[in-house]
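To: structure desk
From: M.T.
Subject: fold request, one chain
Message: Could you run this one when you get a chance? Sequence is below, nothing fancy, just the single chain.
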Amino acid sequence: MLLHKTNDSLEAGNPPDPKILERADAVLEEMRQAGVLVLGEGLMPSSRGARVTFPAPGQPRVMDGPFAETKELVAGVSIIRVDSKEEAVQWALRFAEADPYTPIDILEIAG
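Reply: Done. Structure tokens follow.
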């Protein structure tokens, strides 16, 4: 799974830069053509979300967004089916060519 991090502008509800979005869509199309893309979606700003925490066992706390730490939030997700971490890194690098300012976390899905 590729987790595309957000930024202050996206969190403020501004649309992505059209040129970056066009380049990212081209990478998603490459993934589709290669047969590795399972899912690719953008996410709404955290102001539209909520967070559930457990300050004490069995006592959930629900907190509406927005959330303060923008650098830890995700703006989009791409789920890919590849044979290795190295292949996932190569696809993440393709996204980095589209948007060199957005960090991408690569995580393996359990199961």
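Reply (cont.): The chain is about 30% helix and 30% strand. Let me know if you need anything else for the meeting.
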